[in-house]
Amino acid sequence: MKLNDPLSKYAPPGARVPDWQGKPITLVNLATHTSALPREQPGGAAHRPVFVWPTRQQRWNWLSTATLKTAPGSQAAYSNLAFDLLADALSTAAGKPYPQLFEEQITRPLGMKDTTFTPSPDQCQRLMIPEKGASPCNNTLAAIGSGGVYSTPGDMMRWMQQFLSSDFYTRSQQADRMQTLIYQRNQLTRVIGMDVPGRADALGLGWVYMKPKNGHPGLFRKPAAAAGLSPIWR
Predict the structure, then answer these.
(1) Which residues contact 149 (CB under 8 A, 6 or more apart)?
(2) Is 213 part of any domain?
(3) Can you list the positions of beta strands (E) in the chain?
């Protein structure tokens, strides 16, 4: 599996992936928000719980009818749909369900025992309640790539520690590779929705990079926000 593989290589039988004048959507386009796909799949019931729609079959059915308005790799625009399709491609390449892959490659090696798409009754009892009221404690398997991961502050720190060095921990040997910058801003004709907490200077694999400025160090952050996983257990 390569970053420059076209998404169509991992599409379900009979599915169609749109292109732009012969230029395909690649896996690296999905991972850098440069796929030319919309933020969310159009349609769906109003006021539905988040992270429960569309299902894998629904998004591939929609994709088979979609058209692109720009060339993949020419603009950056935040897309949850792209990351769900990327998760589907990873699952196909691995020959196993994405939640199993997620556990084998991320949560189990890092000891993230409270990070899941399918919370247990005990975990649902510990779900953090926002000021506006409790949210449904649903399984979020429909949004396996773009979000819906239940977790705790402790588990999130375990995940972030691999990118940091200290007297007690050593930065992961894979960290530099995971934080590789793919697109500099000046390589893109437009950058849409990436500047909320500050100007996005470059895009990586799920990361936005902000250059050092006014005495502040360079910063890797989630696109369109300053932090990642949500919601959080209390």
Answers:
(1) 115, 116, 117, 140, 229, 230
(2) yes
(3) 75-77, 181-184, 190-192, 202-204, 208-210, 219-221
What length is written for the chain? 234
Q: How far apart are CA 67 and CA 76, in angstroms?
A: 17
The pLDDT tens digits of the residues spanning 107-127 come to 999 999 999 999 999 999 999
Per-residue pLDDT tens over the stretch 152-188: 999 999 999 998 888 888 888 888 889 999 999 999 9
- Looking at residue 224, its pLDDT comes to 65
Taking a C-beta distance cutoff of 8 angstroms, is the pair 155, 114 a contact?
yes
Beta bridge partner(s), residue 125: none
Nearest to 117 by CA among 145, 79, 90: 145
Domain, as residue range, for 186: 175-221
Domain annotation covers residue 45:
no
145 in a structural domain? no
pLDDT band at 232 (very low <50, low <70, confident <90, very high): very low
The total number of structural domains in the chain stands at 1
CA distance 126 to 20: 46
Say if 196 falls within a structural domain.
yes
* Rounded Cα gap, residues 40 and 50, in angstroms: 11
